[in-house]
Amino acid sequence: MKLGPRSISPSFLIMQATQIHPQSIHQCFFRAKSADQAITGPIMLKIFAAPGSIALASVILLEEVEADYELTLLDFSRGEQKEAAYQAVNPKGRVPALITESGVLTETPAILLYIAKRFGADSLVGAHDPFVFAKIQEFNSYLASTVHVAHAHRLRGSRWTDDPQAIEALKKKVPESMTQVIRLIEDDLLKGLWVHGEAYTICDPYLFTISSWLESDGVDTTALPHLMAHREKMLARAATQAALSRIN
Ligand SMILES: N[C@@H](CCC(=O)N[C@@H](CS)C(=O)NCC(=O)O)C(=O)O
Q: In CATH, what is the architecture of 123-247?
């Protein structure tokens, strides 16, 4: 049988992944939010991240819902995301990737949704109201497809062109394009102290992570008072601090 990434078991993936940072494989038990959600038997939840990456959002949420998880940090400066061991976990060569007992999940919006639905309160995803639920997906889709992509033009221009001059041109545009996409959030999308008003949702760790890149992207954050208040509020949370201390 061909052993491709989609045909191997999660435990095999974990074996593969631990070759990146050799360490003992330990079994984790999830803390479920109620008894009827308790999962019987040992299962493993493992997240792959890198310092300064979008994976911080998922790690903050794991801390927020008090899930037990194992964190593996990849060293991008050594190209570990491109090595065969990690490609077996996530052929996209990106972080985050979350190994669950059902399989591997990638893409931040999907991972946030999974963690929240599985371990968190309904309010994290606006489950009480289909419209609020969809608005939360709308916001996170905007972060993933527009804001994160604008940011990637600074360090990852080679995804779009091989021309060194074009790569420089993409980089040069980032302060302007990031300011533009973030201004919409500052002016229109932030509905209160949290993205959706009173309730902390899966949009908040995601926005916080991207907003932590703004200064390096050349955005004038003094002109973004709502976003900076959101950043302060996020920084005051124990879960955010725990995630930051584990990742950075
Ligand atoms: N759409 C993915 C994007 C993930 C992504 O681009 N992650 C970056 C770090 S912020 C990465 O792994 N880059 C490694 C590379 O480009 O080689 C998500 O939202 O999770």
A: Up-down Bundle (1.20)
